[in-house]
Amino acid sequence: MKKQTMGKSLLAGLLAATPNMADSGSLYFEENGLAHLRLLSNIGLDDEDLAALRNIDGIDQIAPLKTADVLFENQNGVTLALKAYGIDPADPLGGDINKLTLSEGRLPENPNEVLAESTVSAIKKVRVGDQLTFSVQNDEDTTESFLGRTLTV
Question: pLDDT band at residue 56, thresholds of 50, 70 and 90?
Fold first, then answer.
């Protein structure tokens, strides 16, 4: 008898909470302009590709973004595997799509400064003011973009 009551209570709680959770999620997506679709290409997209995408019915905005998986070494010599995201220097907080929220520090003021995502900061122990040096362990394609660079968070 207790199992049935507990099961009914659990179901009632889930049914009551589901609309609130859905509304909260929708509000978060809307307020932060989260993208509805993510298109990936391992060879990149050129201006012609972007123009073709803009002509697809239902696509209102496009926010091209370059990413790379990169190995950096912190000031203690520990190698960190991080994902680097290119940002538009003219609009570093992301415009209307996938808006960034600055929670600590300031925006980068020169090409050798970077933002760190708060989850990366917590997991990888990266803090504002830390220096990250490009690791020689990276592949050749990544090396062209970052070789010899030390970036300050």
Answer: very high
Beta sheet of 79-85, edge-to-edge order: 79-85, 67-73, 131-134, 150-152
What gap in Å lies between CA 139 and CA 152, rounded to an integer?
22
Residue 124's identity, in one-letter code, is K
Instruction: Read off the tokens for 61.
Output: 């905005």
Unique residue bearing structure tokens 């996938």: 98
Distance from C-alpha of 65 to C-alpha of 143, rounded to nearest angstrom: 19
| Count of CB atoms situated within 10 Å of the CB of 24 | 10
Is the pLDDT reported for residue 137 higher than 90? Answer: no
Q: Which of 86, 97, 153, 102 is nearest to 125 (CA)?
A: 153
User: CA–CA separation, 76 vs 82, rounded Å?
Assistant: 16
